[in-house]
Specification:
Blueprint: H1 4-7, H2 25-36, E1 40-41, E2 53-54, H3 58-66, H4 79-89, H5 92-109, H6 116-122, H7 124-139, E3 149-155, E4 158-164, H8 167-178
Parallel strand pairs: 1-2
Antiparallel strand pairs: 3-4
Helix pairs in contact: 2-7, 3-4, 3-5, 5-7, 6-7
Length: about 190
């Protein structure tokens, strides 16, 4: 699956109409402190709780997603400070790419840790719930994050993009994409 920025065609090198900041600093800080930090461990400390994400790797992974060089951080800073700096100062769509990247990493890593307590603390479903709660809070009371997909077509030789939000239309699209598919992360398991 393409990254958030690719799916929504965001690239700072391509001039576009003015886009409002969609990941304010408060949201980024809340994500870092309340969701990401409890999932990380430092190379310098023992990882007694089996936290899933090695802090040393995260700044490099962020830069890889953002397609930027890893800065030469001052030697006296911690990897956590390096990551906070990247996330707080980066493009807003790179923040969402990183949030998705962490979720994907947790999905892969949870196969190695099957205890219920580990899954409830560090598993993907726990992460997803926390992220969705934080984002729902950030966009306002009474609003919710919508399940959407963008359908790309070519009509009269011109590319067209249509955002689909209707749950019935989304279900129809999912059914057509998942027809004759035996196993896929996109497609729900079929019950015969």
């Amino acid at each position: 699956m393409p990254k958030f920025s690719s799916r929504f065609n965001f690239d700072r090198r391509v001039p576009k109409e003015t886009i409002l900041e969609d990941a304010p600093e408060g949201l980024r800080v809340a994500y870092l402190n309340s969701i990401l930090e409890p999932l990380t461990y430092s190379n310098d400390l023992e990882n007694d709780n089996n936290r899933p994400l090695q802090l040393f790797q995260l700044p490099k992974q962020y830069c890889g997603l953002a397609r930027q060089e890893v800065p030469n951080f001052p030697q006296h800073t911690s990897h956590w400070d390096d990551l906070k700096s990247l996330v707080k100062e980066g493009e807003w769509f790179n923040f969402y790419d990183f949030v998705e990247h962490v979720g994907k990493r947790l999905m892969v890593l949870q196969d190695d840790f099957r205890s219920e307590s580990w899954l409830s603390d560090y598993g993907f479903q726990s992460y997803k719930t926390k992220v969705n709660d934080l984002f729902a809070e950030a966009i306002g009371e009474g609003k919710s994050l919508e399940d959407t997909t963008t359908v790309y077509t070519v009509q009269n030789g011109q590319p067209q993009a249509t955002v689909v939000k209707d749950p019935k239309q989304l279900a129809t699209i999912r059914e057509k994409l998942c027809a004759n598919v035996k196993k896929s992360k996109l497609c729900p398991a079929r019950i015969p």
